[in-house]
Design goal:
single chain, 32% helix, 3 strands, 128 residues, 3-stranded mixed beta sheet
Length: 128
């Protein structure tokens, strides 16, 4: 399953991921940094949800009994800013937000040159 997730993010490309911005600048070097996601209005919510699930999985891993690595950030899932850069062309059509696509003119959609649909994997929560 993680190969499929890797493939999804490889297809999207690192340059097309939503960025994070520091929510507050704290002068205390020992406090956890708070970051907030910057919204990409063109990105399908299923991909945003997949990224959030992976961040939660990383958070759980980092807070297990095994310690090491950099301390995790406090992630604030709601976005207060929207990214202004244009949507990338050529992605699978279902990687784009359906409402955003509907708002495009025929010419804008044609210029976007979306590719064939590609499955977006889901992480399933298992409670034992």
């Amino acid at each position: 399953m993680f190969n499929e997730i890797d493939d999804t993010f490889d297809t999207l490309g690192l340059e097309n991921m939503s960025s994070d911005e520091t929510d507050t600048e704290d002068s205390n070097p020992y406090s956890k940094k708070r970051v907030r996601r910057v919204d990409l209005p063109w990105l399908n919510d299923n991909i945003v949800g997949l990224k959030r699930s992976l961040e939660k999985l990383d958070y759980s891993r980092r807070h297990s009994k095994e310690k090491g690595g950099n301390p995790s950030c406090i992630r604030i899932p709601s976005a207060t800013k929207t990214e202004k850069r244009p949507a990338p062309g050529g992605l699978p059509i279902n990687y784009y937000d359906p409402s955003w696509l509907k708002g495009l003119s025929d010419l804008e959609r044609q210029m976007l040159e979306p590719g064939p649909e590609k499955r977006i994997p889901e992480l399933v929560s298992i409670n034992l």
